[in-house]
TrEMBL record:
PANTHER family from the UniProt entry: AMINO ACID IMPORT ATP-BINDING PROTEIN (PTHR43166), L-CYSTINE IMPORT ATP-BINDING PROTEIN TCYN (PTHR43166:SF35)
GO cellular component: plasma membrane
Superkingdom of origin organism: Bacteria
Keywords of the record: ATP-binding, Cell membrane, Membrane, Nucleotide-binding, Transport
Localization of this protein: Cell membrane
Keyword field contains Cytoplasm: no
Ranges annotated as spanning the membrane: none
InterPro entries: AAA+_ATPase, ABC_ATPase_HisP-typ, ABC_transporter-like_ATP-bd, ABC_transporter-like_CS, MetN_ABC_transporter-like, P-loop_NTPase
Species for this entry: Senegalimassilia anaerobia
Descriptive protein name: L-cystine ABC transporter ATP-binding protein YecC
Amino acid sequence: MTNPLVSLSHARKSFGKTEVLKDISLSVEQGQVVAIIGPSGGGKSTLLRCMTLLETLDGGSLSYGDLAVATDNGSGSVYGGKAVLSQAKTRFGLVFQNFNLFPHYTVLKNVTDAPLSVQKRPKDQVMAQAHELLVKMGLERKENMVPCELSGGQQQRVAIARALALNPDVLFFDEPTSALDPELTKGVLKVIRDLADEHMTMVIVTHEMSFARDVADHIIFMDGGYIVEEGPAEQVINNPQQERTKLFLANYG
Ligand code: ADP
Ligand code: MG
C-alpha cells in the first residue's frame, strides 16, 4: 500500500475559546475527488486552511504522501522544520472563493510568476505550459489583460490555471463558484469537471450539490467541527443516513 496523497488525523483547531475543528480525520488517494459540504460556519474553510498550511493545527497530524508535515506528540501538533514545510507547499494548490489574483499582473504573469520566481523553472517551459493551461481554461485571448478586465468566471479560471502551473499533486478549492452568478458558475464547474475526468486529485468545498454528486467520488458532510457523515457521493446525496445531513440537503432541494 502506498500512502494517501494527503492524510489528516484527529485534527483539532480553535480560535480563542471557539473550537472550530474538533476531531477531523480524512485521507485523499491519488486520483480521488473529495467534496466537502455543510452549513456555513461548520469549519470547512478552516479545514482547508489547515491542510494548506495557512493555519496551524492545535492537535492531530498531517502528511503529504510520505512527508510528515505535523505529528501529534500526545499534547498537540508538532510541525516539521522549514525544509519539510517548503517541500509540502510544492504538493498542493489552492483556489479561493474570491480568486485572489494579483491585480496589477497580467493574466499570463499571474500564471507564470510562481513557477518562475519560486520554483525557478526554465522560462520557455513555464511559458509553454502557461499558454497551454490558458487555452484549456478558454482564456487564450486574455493573456495580456489584467484581472479587473475579466469576468468573475474568467478570473476564477485564471486562478485555476495559476494553481495548476505549479504542478501540484492535489488541488484544493474553497467554494470556487460562490462569488459567481449561475451563468459564470457553469464555466468554472465545467473546467473542474474536465480536471476530474483527467483524474486530477481534488478536494472541493462546495454548495453545488448536484455537481458534488456527479463529480466527486467521496463526499464529506461537516457540521459543528465534526464530520457528521461521509461516503460515496451518490449515497450521501441521494440516501443520507444522518438526520442532520437530511435536513441540510432538504434545504438544497
Ligand atoms: P465554513 O467555511 O464552514 O463556513 P469556517 O471555517 O470559515 O466555516 O468558520 C468556522 C468557525 O470558525 C466560524 O465560527 C468562524 O467565525 C470561525 N473562524 C474562522 N476563522 C477564524 C479566525 N481567523 N479567527 C476567529 N474565528 C474564526
Ligand atoms: Mg468557508
